[in-house]
Design goal:
By secondary structure, the chain is α/β, with parallel strands linked by helices. It contains 11 helices and 13 strands. The chain has 2 domains: about 60 residues, Orthogonal Bundle (DNA polymerase, domain 1), CATH 1.10.150; about 290 residues, TIM Barrel (Alpha-Beta Barrel), CATH 3.20.20.70. The structure holds S-adenosyl-L-homocysteine and iron/sulfur cluster.
Length: about 400
């Protein structure tokens, strides 16, 4: 069970191969400026050009340099010769009966990654992935059965938001959202992978998503979910500043060791101690404790009482997630009666305890059900990568 854990698993995103156009997606403003200088843009102009490009890419969602009409034609041509702002291809788009949309995207190397859009009455949440597969193997998670193939680049992370915006036709026209409303109001890093094992790329991507002159989704509408990579938690608060969700799932180390094996490295006590120091923690910016409800494993009244004792002193809400089964999964979902009883104990202790309605189950898009790329494709991609070494 013991998964190899960072740093040796921090696979660097695939470098750009010779002769391949460099993607501008995911570059920080400064990296974008440097990329422009590298193709001959005079240094004194580079900052302004980078700013103009930024707005075309992230505010207007333009996919072709030729449409960037306030840039001189020769400059647009130079951009087109060296760079690309193309999105990953949508291999399949599945739409659930409840309106949930699951995108299967093909990224470089023939790999695949999933993102899910979940519409609600007053909000629309896009759930994005940070890795192809995951190095951790939480026993109740489908993604965990897929080995890590690689980290996503910042561009591949931000591109998931852009692809969904393309599909939902929500790029603003003349700076105003279409129909006066946004469709993607919230972003959650709860898809495939452990975001804090791909820290820099997740940070750079989220800084682009939050940028006021870009996609402009507030940091308070972005939630990063981690299984508990303790050494990176405070840094996430400082360098990303988004809301935090913790995959807690158990109230004793014994059970958490089996459900979330990273607990063997950083146990409940170490995790809670770190959470108390999370920057800006307050009643308006509470930590979400995710708790998957597994029949007869972690769902007793005693568990509920232990849970509220453990987190006392931390501004928190508890998100109860009915277990979503997948083929061959070793657990069952707790009964609704059990989930309600558990929620009530938590609620009476003064914590909000919403139960997460499973969404998109008919298309395997619910929490923990994501698992992309058939083994066959994955193996052939790996073989190909190996033959290039
Ligand atoms: N790796 C990160 C983020 C992705 S998982 C993390 O573990 O936090 C997003 C959430 O879905 C986590 O809380 C995870 O524990 C939960 N989850 C995983 N598998 C699940 C399943 N089969 N049913 C319900 N929730 C699940
Ligand atoms: Fe990885 Fe999160 Fe799934 Fe655990 S729950 S295996 S950390 S994706």
């Amino acid at each position: 069970m013991s998964a190899p854990i960072a740093p040796e698993t921090r696979v660097i995103a695939r470098p750009v191969a010779e002769g391949e156009k460099q993607s501008l997606l995911g570059l920080t403003r400064d990296a974008l400026r440097k990329a422009l200088i590298a193709i001959g843009t005079p240094e004194r102009q580079a900052k302004m050009r980078a700013s103009q490009l930024w707005s075309w890419i992230y505010q207007k969602g333009v996919q072709d340099f030729a449409e960037m009409t306030n840039l001189a034609k020769p400059f647009r041509e130079a951009l087109g010769a060296h760079f690309t702002v193309a999105r990953p291809e949508i291999v399949t788009l599945q739409i659930s009966q409840d309106g949930t949309r699951k995108y299967l995207l093909r990224i470089a190397g023939g790999l695949e990654v999933e993102a899910v859009y979940i519409p609600d009455e007053n909000r629309g949440t896009l759930c994005i992935s940070s890795q192809v597969g995951c190095t951790l193997n939480c026993s109740f998670c489908h993604t965990g059965t897929q080995k890590l193939v690689r980290n996503l680049s910042a561009g591949e992370i931000v591109a998931q938001v852009m692809v969904a915006r393309d599909d939902l036709d929500e790029w603003p026209v003349d700076g105003t959202p279409r129909e006066g409303r946004r469709r993607i109001t919230n972003v959650v890093l709860m898809g495939m992978g452990e975001p804090l094992y791909n820290f820099e790329n997740v940070r750079d991507a989220m800084n682009i998503v939050m940028d006021n002159e870009g996609i402009s989704i507030s940091r308070r509408r972005i939630t990063l979910s981690t299984s508990g990579v303790v050494p990176e938690i405070i840094r996430a608060g400082e360098e990303i500043g988004c809301l935090l969700a913790i995959s807690f799932h158990a109230t004793t180390n014994e059970i958490r060791d089996t459900l979330v094996p990273i607990n063997k490295k950083w146990n409940i006590e170490k995790l809670l101690e770190t959470l108390k120091a999370y920057p800006r923690l307050s009643n308006s910016e509470r930590i979400t404790f995710e708790y998957v409800m597994l029949k007869d494993v972690n769902d007793s009244d005693d568990d509920a009482r232990r849970l509220v004792r453990l987190i006392s002193g931390i501004p928190a809400k508890i998100n109860l997630i009915p277990f979503n089964p997948w083929p061959g999964s070793p657990y069952e979902r707790s009964s609704w009666g059990r989930i309600e009883a558990f929620a009530e104990i938590v609620n009476e202790a003064g914590y909000a305890s919403p139960v997460r309605t499973p969404r998109g189950e008919d298309i395997m898009a619910a929490c923990g059900q994501l698992k992309s790329a058939s083994e066959k494709q994955r193996k052939s991609a790996l073989k190909k990568a190996a033959s290039h070494d």
